[in-house]
Amino acid sequence: MTELSLNEVESLAAKVGRGGGFSWGLAEEIGRSARRLAQGGLPWAEALLALAEKAEGMQAPSFAQAEQWRGSRMATRSKARLCPVRAAALLIDDPAILRAKPLHLASVGLPIWIVGMLAASTVADGFQIAWPGATALVGRREVVPEGSSDAWLAPAADVTIAPAAAPSTQPSLLRRALADDAILTALSSFAARIYVPASESSRAKGAGGGNVDEE
Amino acid sequence: MRRAARERWKVGRIKWAVDDAGYGHAIYGVDTPGRTYCLVAFSTPLEDSRRTDRVIAEAWDTSYVLYDGIPNTEEIARLRQNAPLQEAGRYCARDLILARANKSVRLFDAVVDALAKGEQPDAALLASVGYLMRTTAVYGNGKFGIADRAEIVGRPELSGPFQAEMLTVWLIRSFTIDLAEHVAQRRAPGRAARLSPHLRRGLGVGNATGLGMAPFLVRHPVLMHNWFHARETALARVRSQPSASGIAQAAFLAALAAMREKVRTWRTADSRQVEAIAALAADLAGLELNAADIMRRAPLPWDALYRFAETNLSLEGQEATIALILEPHGELIDDLADTLAADEDVCFRIDGAMTCGALKALIMQNYAWTRRFDFNQETANARFWYVSAEKLEPRLGERLSEPGAEREQPLAIARDIAALSCALEAEPAATFVADFLLRHPEWRHVIRRAQIVARHPYAEIRDNLIDASMRPIDLLRSKLAFFGASRFDPRSDRWLRISLFAGEPFPEDIVAAQEGEGVS
What is the edge-to-edge ordering of all strands in the sheet holding B24-31? Predict the structure, then answer.
């Protein structure tokens, strides 16, 4: 296991998000989400690797789905799993969807990212996010998992998001993160997709000329 | 330094385990009212061929950690194993800042030689370099496992942006001089001289800075806004003063004379900067000649000085004038230091209820400056910013001749705003941004930025950061200026050297001032 600073978690997750195919803006949000998950003691590294590996197979909410959420709030089931990052991004951008009644989202891939994304959004005072086996209270800048559960890494689930009071007591957030070394290695290979391999030209010019100190 | 004096910080060397050749470790303790911090410094042998200022280096003369508390033997052993490795080491939450510095070999050796002979080093030589060592990186905020900024942001003594980094560099300055004096003493025990207070005071710490700082400026728009807003506010307050007291005028003239003295010692091989320094020297002479007269006649004397600079001086001279007229006005403007910090999270959420029409209007209003660029021109789209796989550091590539443009970092704000504007042309004005982003997540970071900039007018660097003629060092300089950097010495268009703390008090000077001896 390696201990990481939360800034390392955020920075790595943003790179992995981009390396996994998300836009730069969503990658920024994935970074902040991973930090919130880590602070809440949730398995951020495993969740991040699963997201990078499965991102391509998940789909964004359709405009029709978005309209349904705004209106009927009935679950709409589609063939592919709903991308949790794209779905949560819509809920952050249009928080009115969440304000009144509970929202039911069907077949959400890696629902833990709904938790992370809403926790990183400062979108409202509090939500309770639940799927079979897992419940989390999300405040303006924190995640409070209720009870322990191995359902956090569920590959897919139907998710309910309901307005809730902010956590009544200040949760004790973790200040450092832990990650399994094998998972970190796998994450690093996704992050590396945004790097440009060095060439003689880039070594010579990319960071400026000059070499040995002559003074 | 103001806080250190006000709060009567106690700063002193608490461990010195350095051998005759100058290798070993030392610890400097800083007692603040709330906490104790330590600079743990390591000095290790380095072959001349491996000494480079650039980020590609793998070994350094000295390495440093600003430690939270006082390290015990085990912690010192841990730091000794890791700090000299810098990026290749791992660190923990007690390690607040990680840094390294290389000797300015020519000057370090000359100073040691002179002191060992019982003499003072040549003042002109000292002034021509200005420092015994140069830092080549000062890392904070969680890098390589060190403490997150969140760990220290609630501590008044370190809450300001880069305060912990600057404290580290201030302490490194003391170590560099102590090390030179130590080596001289060991070489000639009982006969070696100590550096005279005047020469000592003139030495700063060098710093070599490269491209890494440029993306930082783009990625922290609220912080940049706060810095420039504070500076503009300070300037506005001073310019609106209806009078200039004799004390303030004297302080201004003293600061001007000191700056003229400093500028005389600045050296660079960069031809453009040589001209700029010459123009600055002439400007300062002109300012000195005219200042009293300008101020005597004007209803707003400081404003008159500013206007004189704006009309008559080079850009360097104008900026120097601003620094000089702020100098005597600490009581009027020092409170603005508390406005420099920024919480970028507060502005992070996108307002998806904004319509695309409103977004377009906002872009028209705040990004009119981007319309002067034609991104169909090769020169306007000539470069791309990327992160190198080798060192995980930002670099700048040539779009047409180097591979990797498909992995470009999102730093070409002007180009991206122009492209977003085109994309918005096809959208009905009533479409909500939330719905636009549902279809076009690729614009998410650009829209976020446009909304942030609407509330933070100084957030944006109003230039094309991928233009063929763009000089990254100009970006670096703007940030370094906020650290009080002087002696701007471009080494290419992508990295430069500067000096910090030259002429400023040492920790012991502040203690002496508290004890009524006066700061020398």
Answer: B10-18, B24-31, B36-43, B62-68, B95-103, B131-139, B204-209, B496-500, B486-490
